[in-house]
Amino acid sequence: MIGSDNNASVGTLETLTTTLIDSVNGYRDAAQNAEGSKFQEIFRRNADERSRVAEELRSEISRLGGNAPDDGSFLGSTHQRFLDLKAAVTGRDDKAIINEVERGEDYLKEKFEAALGADIAPETRTVIERAYQSVRAGHDQMSALKHGMEA
């Protein structure tokens, strides 16, 4: 049973975990659809990193007495299908894929920033801050790739 003090922390962690799982799925899909092997490798590495971070959040959920999610959100599934469709229609254009991935990164970063602004237990905040460092690095990497392609 989750204590009332942990409810907010568990809810926040569940949302972040689900969003990270969506990110893992998005990166795997991007790796499958990218033309350039350089991009495929970046996307695979980022998917692996996000899986690791999601696992850390799952551990914290369990520590707090919650049940950690192991699949993404409905919106994530919808976004995934859109990415699939877009890749098929655009002929797997790397620039279009990177634009979509970067858009997902913006969303994920916002989720983490909102969580860090919430009233949560200090131990949970530490776990989220550690995860956020990884999220921010991935966001910045995709942003740099996107802007590099626009130059």
From TrEMBL:
<dbReference type="Pfam" id="PF09537">
    <property type="entry name" value="DUF2383"/>
</dbReference>
<protein>
    <submittedName>
        <fullName>PA2169 family four-helix-bundle protein</fullName>
    </submittedName>
</protein>
<dbReference type="InterPro" id="IPR011971">
    <property type="entry name" value="CHP02284"/>
</dbReference>
<dbReference type="InterPro" id="IPR016920">
    <property type="entry name" value="UCP029477"/>
</dbReference>
<dbReference type="InterPro" id="IPR019052">
    <property type="entry name" value="DUF2383"/>
</dbReference>
<dbReference type="InterPro" id="IPR012347">
    <property type="entry name" value="Ferritin-like"/>
</dbReference>
<feature type="domain" description="DUF2383">
    <location>
        <begin position="12"/>
        <end position="116"/>
    </location>
</feature>
